[in-house]
Amino acid sequence: MKPRISMITLGVDDIERAVTFYEKGLGFPRMDSPPTVAFFTLNGSWLGLYGREALAEDAMVSAEGSGFNGFALAHNVGSEAEVDALLSQAVDAGATLVKPGQEVFWGGYSGYFKDPDGHLWEIAHNPFCWIGPEDE
Questions:
Q1: Superfamily covering domain 73-130
Q2: Domain spanning 7-58 has what CATH number?
Q3: What global pTM score does this model have?
Q4: Could you tell me if 25 and 93 are in contact, meaning their C-beta atoms sit under 8 angstroms apart?
């Protein structure tokens, strides 16, 4: 098996609000999909949005959850200025700033936001390991 993540599906409380955040707020390209689910194309994978209760039911787990989910999604960009700009764009679209962009212990620069459903995103610039469009 070749390791890869084909799709990340986020359970959301309000599909319309989540679609607006990702499509209009962050500019993710949306694919055609039924009204109960949304898919966005990413470079090499997809992001899916699905009702939190329905996703939990499909996986046969409890939909209850609070606090830190034990993971963060990460988006790497080419500069510190891009980190700050994307954090600002996310906040303008309805995200909550968790940690402003700043130099970090591993030598890069990053910050965090939570989307309207509380999913944690890191926006980072890693000067030691940048994968950009020209590298894909």
A1: 2,3-Dihydroxybiphenyl 1,2-Dioxygenase, domain 1 (3.10.180.10)
A2: 3.10.180.10
A3: 0.81
A4: yes
